[in-house]
Amino acid sequence: ARFALAHLIPGGELQIEYDAERHDRYGRTLAHVLLSDGRSVEEALLRDGLAFLIAEAPNLARLESYARAEVEARRAGRGVWGHPYYKPRAAARLGPDDTGFRFVEGEVRRVGRGPHATYFDLSERFTLVIPHEHWHFFGGDPKRFLHRHVIARGWVSAQENRLRLRLSHPAMLEW
Prior knowledge:
- Helices cover 18% and strands 30% of the residues.
- The chain has four helices and ten strands, in the order H-E-E-H-H-E-E-E-E-E-H-E-E-E.
- The longest helix has 14 residues, at 63-76.
């Protein structure tokens, strides 16, 4: 990706386009990067299979075009999509060290609602977490996911004796 990016932006001027938020919780700038001709740098990397679609509400302005670019790369097996590391891993087989960005799959065995989130258990030790503030993107009754096979993408974290993957938009979940 770094090599492709260096060739895509060989020193020309870039444009920055902000989305709903200008900074993330760590103070990093959030923006879409455009080449001088208006082409999206992110979309180019996605189309070449050198990046992953990440949908982090409320920053969703270019979600549809990014999703189309990633689907194109996946179907063609370009870039990371041809590498076995990025194939979904079974939730039941993940251990405490399997944190970081992952594609995880499994059957939704239990659906629960807590004071702050809806939970989908894919195994005894793996849970998908959807904060209530983002549930409107998923909509409907959470129980409709029960017993469905899902593939989720995102950052897996360890909390107590469980692994969790937080979702803020359905674009991070396939069923």
